[in-house]
Recover the amino acids of this structure.
């Protein structure tokens, strides 16, 4: 952490109340009702969650202990037996929802498919049996590297059904990034597809899997399960690779859900941290089920008449909690779209909303900023009147982008929920409840019931109103991560030690700077550690630096975020070459390509500046705040007294 003080410059005074009509029909109907629930939950969080767990979920066996908190290790609902696939599917089959649309899927190439709860249940059971046939057992890790097709959700639910731990890897990650994650998770099986459609081209997923596991690079992987999506020829390795449509033949569609212990691992999902390789964030069964369920219900205010669409990819936590588990656990209709706005159809999102009469729409600020750039013409030529509620996630939303979203997409009638959370939190933590909490553009507003956040300084002392500080959470919640896969020490260090415990009370450190205003509204400002947020995706500077240094021409590299209008931040890399190498345009291009092949296209540096040396403190720490100022072309006004060699700065500037 480099910032000694965190200053907020945003002064936003507009306030938007939900309409009386919206509030009356909402699950939580007024600010008073929210406050009542919030206060009751804060007085006894464990009792609050236990009550909901009892009312909202199906249990094979009830827990004996609601909360066992021995920081940083936590157990929720210990002694309970539950299965999230059962809660997402089976329990709806005994109701009228059996024949309700569970999953609506729209492919980028115009294919589409709708699965009812009964049909989705059948597919999941069959898939689960196929996994068993391949020798997958409870506790085994399964990699999922898929396009946005129904089989991605089916594979996740099938793993959960038999107690296998899924590790979804975003389909945009490179073979190298996939390999690292499969190795770390010791996956036995990889589920993939021949390819997926993305911006009118085929993403060759199976080829990437072949590359990732070639030459025994991932010894734990014995089988690859391939779904046919795009149909181009792909090599199949006999004995190792299996087509899903072949395996499916003659596989029974009966498969009971495995009763899981509350704290059995449900999935591992990798995310970037400020140091070293990506962390495998571990989530467990019961707490995650309850937390994704409750947040979906109250925040997206889901009713049986809703068609709910979250535009994330299942490769991110947003896809896990708010495309698959949360909506299905609630018996809602969730929409999955394979495509992205592309030159051949910039308005494709609005087509999807019109075609399926989407009522609740959840997307990212970076997407909204790109819609603004494309022009109002695209949404204005589609019928968006079905929409009743909008959401955003991923980074702070600029008030003007919020206003555009409200006016152009929401027709000035839809509340907006700006939802702050993280891979680690499992679900949304700070957000408006749309029928209850008036919104202020740019603020995530108030904490979800049962969540006790605060703003503190580095010693853990609470900040005053409107004073910037570090965002922390004071009490455990059911959806919180349990550990870093295979590295409990890293879990402790990354989240529980930055802010020292006071009177033995540990606080969760989120890594974000924020302030709380006089109404208790939270204004999140962004990361305070060495994490860059590019288009709502977290990238650790260390990972990109390591990728650069793995190129033979590079001796040292430092990467910083540079403000970007659409993406929020762009990647700016300072590179020191090995003695005999000369800077050139070609080399810069080659290095960018190298980062793409090491991590994936989302990590491509927008700019590479060759330098002779980097600004360092006398103790040898790279002074990133100086590099950040240089990257954004700002004058360096902050203190440079700890800099070892001041002439380095002038040279770096000349490089511009
Ligand atoms: C980081 C977490 C959680 C799903 C998407 C990203 C930033 C996320 C907001 C928001 C301000 C936000 C934070 C956070 N962030 N939502 N509404 N307002 N900042 O998940 O990759 O784990 O990233 O995204 O900086 O720490 P993630």
């Amino acid at each position: 952490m480099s910032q000694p003080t965190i200053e907020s410059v945003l002064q936003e005074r507009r306030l938007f109340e939900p309409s009386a009509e919206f509030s009356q029909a909402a699950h939580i109907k007024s600010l008073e009702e929210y406050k009542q629930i919030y206060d009751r939950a804060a007085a006894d969080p464990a009792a609050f969650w236990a009550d909901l767990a009892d009312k909202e979920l199906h249990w094979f066996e009830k827990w004996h202990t609601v909360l066992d908190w021995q920081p940083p290790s936590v157990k929720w609902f210990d002694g309970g037996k539950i299965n999230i696939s059962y809660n997402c599917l089976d329990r709806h089959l005994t109701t009228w929802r059996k024949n309700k649309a569970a999953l609506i899927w729209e492919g980028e190439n115009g294919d589409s498919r709708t699965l009812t709860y009964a049909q989705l249940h059948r597919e999941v059971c069959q898939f689960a049996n196929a996994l068993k046939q391949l020798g997958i057992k409870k506790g085994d890790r399964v990699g999922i590297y898929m396009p946005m097709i129904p089989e991605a959700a089916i594979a996740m639910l099938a793993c959960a059904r038999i107690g296998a731990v899924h590790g979804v890897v975003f389909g945009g990650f490179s073979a190298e990034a996939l390999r690292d994650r499969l190795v770390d998770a010791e996956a036995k099986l990889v589920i993939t597809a021949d390819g997926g459609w993305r911006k009118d081209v085929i993403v060759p997923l199976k080829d990437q899997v072949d590359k990732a596991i070639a030459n025994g690079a991932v010894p734990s992987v014995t089988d690859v399960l391939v779904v046919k999506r795009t149909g181009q020829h792909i090599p199949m390795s006999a004995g190792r690779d299996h087509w899903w449509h072949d395996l499916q033949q003659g596989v029974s569609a009966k498969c009971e859900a495995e009763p899981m212990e509350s704290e059995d691992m449900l999935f591992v999902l990798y995310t970037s941290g400020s140091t070293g390789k990506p962390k495998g964030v571990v989530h467990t069964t019961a707490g995650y089920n309850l937390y994704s369920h409750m947040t979906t219900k109250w925040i997206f205010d889901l009713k049986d008449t809703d068609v709910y669409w979250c535009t994330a990819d299942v490769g991110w936590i947003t896809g896990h909690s708010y495309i698959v588990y949360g909506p299905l656990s609630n018996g809602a209709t969730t929409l999955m779209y394979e495509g992205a706005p592309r030159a051949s159809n910039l308005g494709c999102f609005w087509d999807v909303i019109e075609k399926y009469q989407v009522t609740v729409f959840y997307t990212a600020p970076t997407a909204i900023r790109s819609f603004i750039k494309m022009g109002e013409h695209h949404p204005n030529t589609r019928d968006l009147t079905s929409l009743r509620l909008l959401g955003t996630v991923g980074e702070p939303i600029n008030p003007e982008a919020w206003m555009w979203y409200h006016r152009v997409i929401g027709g000035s009638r839809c509340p907006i929920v700006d939802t702050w959370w993280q891979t680690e939190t499992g679900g949304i933590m700070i957000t408006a409840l749309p029928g209850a909490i008036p919104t202020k553009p740019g603020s995530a507003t108030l904490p979800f019931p049962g969540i006790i956040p605060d703003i503190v300084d580095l010693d853990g002392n609470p900040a005053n109103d409107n004073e910037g500080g570090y965002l922390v959470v004071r009490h455990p919640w059911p959806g919180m991560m349990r550990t870093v896969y295979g590295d409990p020490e890293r879990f402790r260090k990354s989240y529980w030690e930055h802010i020292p415990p006071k009177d033995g009370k540990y606080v969760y450190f989120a890594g974000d700077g924020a302030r709380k205003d006089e109404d208790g509204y939270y204004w999140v400002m962004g990361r305070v550690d060495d994490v860059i947020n590019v288009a709502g995706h977290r990238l650790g500077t260390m990972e990109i630096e390591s990728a650069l240094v793995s190129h033979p021409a590079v001796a040292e590299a430092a990467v910083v975020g540079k403000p970007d209008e659409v993406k929020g931040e762009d990647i700016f890399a300072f590179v020191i070459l090995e003695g005999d190498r000369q800077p050139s345009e070609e080399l810069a291009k080659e290095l960018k390509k190298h980062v793409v092949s090491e991590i994936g296209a989302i990590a491509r540096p927008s700019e590479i500046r060759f330098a002779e040396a980097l600004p360092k403190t006398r103790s040898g720490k790279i002074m990133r705040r100086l590099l950040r100022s240089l990257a954004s072309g700002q004058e360096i006004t902050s203190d440079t007294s700890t800099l070892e060699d001041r002439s380095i700065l002038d040279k770096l500037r000349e490089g511009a």
